[in-house]
Amino acid sequence: MNHVRIGSISDIIRSGLVIVDTLDVVRELLENSVDSGAANVQIDIDYDGDCLSVRVEDDGAGMSKGDLSLLGRRNWSSKQVETSSFGSRGESLHSIMGLCTRTEIISKQNHTAWKLHFVGDTSRGDLNETQFDVSSGTIVNVVDVFGRVPVRKRHFKAEWRDMTTKLGSMTFIVLACRPNVAVTLKRNGKLVSKGCNSGGTKGVADLMQLLLGLPGPFFTVQDEMDNIVVEGVITKTLTQGYQFLVMNGRVLENRELLSWVNKQFGKDRSASFIFFITTSVEESDLLQSPRKRCYRPVQFDKIRTVIGRLVKQWTNRESSKRQSLGPRRWIGASRFFTNVSSISLTKESLIRCRPICQVENKFILARVDSVLVALDQHACDERVIVERLYKQWTTSMSVCVCDVVFVVNRLELALFEKFGAELFQWGIKIEIQEQRITIRQISQLVGEKPDQYVQQGVIRFLEDLDLKRKRGVADSDTWWTSLAQMPDFYQETIKQRACREAIRFGKSLTNQEQQQLLNDLVRCKDPMHCAHGRPTCVPLIRWHDK
């Protein structure tokens, strides 16, 4: 058995647990630069064919010749074990070297620069003195990312397409944790962003606008409980894309907590935010992930409570004053109606429904076998109309010319670039110019809607596509199954139209019109509910024929 070969493979596998994608390579090198005390960091990412390379240059403290000679060994680090540093495990650089074809490192300290060359994770040659035009600092040049694991390159094209947005988020979270560091980012020689955190929540808000493209306004919050202090920045957005939790300078990743926080914002309100959590340092919080993340802090419940109070501050500020309703007054029901709780109406039973009379020009009394049923004439007609409109707009798409112009953040821009074809399937034709979106064509269904309604509807549809709540285009010829893929704002418009066109309360119906309405209702896919989910009919009493 070739133990050396097995050992090298296991080392690559272990490296793959630390470095998952190209973004991890960039983040680890950036964090190393920031930990070195750098005030300026420049990141260059180049992609040519299937070869992707990353170069990071900083003006930090640099490394001595002795430290540089030990560099790249697993679990070796020149950093002090401090919570203020992004990491001190000594795993990231070794893992990057183990997955990439070639790595070159130049570091300068005490006016002398040294150069080291690696092939894989093995150094080649001795340390050589070289030129470096800074008083101190380091250059790390990683050539052919994942060159030693070719199968990982299959996703490069998709990663490269989405990388600008992800790099913006990654750079933001690093700079948000470390003020007074300037980071310049380039892709294939083209400047992508340049940002610096000037400090405090004001500096973080400026970064959210610069790196994430969020327009604001930004609301700062702060609260504490026992030994936990939380401060943050919140801004109203159409999506939930930019949401960050940072605990003691490290990213806190907990889907349960983020899901809970979003519920506190309310059903019809979305926000982007970053919360900085400061609490006592627990050893278990530092050792939960090789990627230097924390997933379940020891004081999780208290942290959630404080964040909930901060969200409440923001929602109270955003919500307008609403008139409170008085307590409901209930009238005792007659015992004559108490025996209907066990009655269940179905589509099949409605086939046998026969109208008796109209009550107050609002309801139709009808008989289903031995049950007296009340049908809401508006709800019934609304169901008939909404299904007709659903069928019409899922089987054909009439479009109209429009000119809806708006500016998006970088996350939203990436979604427009990614799902342009899916938008076109639903009659939405767009033009993209930097972060400016112009909708040139839209379905006639929403052609007369306000621009803001169209903008919000399209962006929320993109979010549904990105989260795979919708597939963009239906794979069925039936309207009922196609409906699930239709943009929500199309569906809402159809419901509103059905409500306007349906028979109103106060309209008198002949017995023939009542019967026709019941016949149309029975042919519906869901005759038991109106377009908005209210019941179309309810049982009143059961009687027995003598």
Structure, described:
Helices cover 36% and strands 25% of the residues. It contains 17 helices and 21 strands. The strands form four sheets. Strands 1, 2, 3, 4, 5, 6, 7, 8 and 9 form a nine-stranded mixed sheet that branches. A five-stranded mixed sheet has the order 10-11-14-12-13, with helices on both faces. A hairpin with a 2-residue loop joins β10 (219-225) and β11. The longest helix has 22 residues, at 156-177. The model is unreliable at 1-7, 13-17 and 330-334 (pLDDT under 50).
CATH topology of the largest domain: Heat Shock Protein 90
| Rg estimate, integer Å | 31 Å
The main β sheet shows up as: 9 strands, mixed
> How does the helix and strand content classify structurally?
alpha+beta
Mean pLDDT: 81
Instruction: Count up the domains.
Output: 4
Tell me how many strands there are. 21
Q: CATH homologous superfamily name of the largest domain?
A: Histidine kinase-like ATPase, C-terminal domain
CATH class of the largest domain, please? Alpha Beta
Task: Give the termini separation.
Answer: 92 Å
Percent range of helical residues: 25-40%
**Mass-distribution shape:** elongated
Strand content: 25-35%
Low-confidence stretches: 1-7, 13-17, 330-334
CATH architecture of the largest domain: 2-Layer Sandwich
Number of helices: 17
Domain MutL C-terminal dimerisation: 355-509
Organism: Ogataea philodendri
GO molecular function: ATP binding; ATP hydrolysis activity; ATP-dependent DNA damage sensor activity
Family: Belongs to the DNA mismatch repair MutL/HexB family.
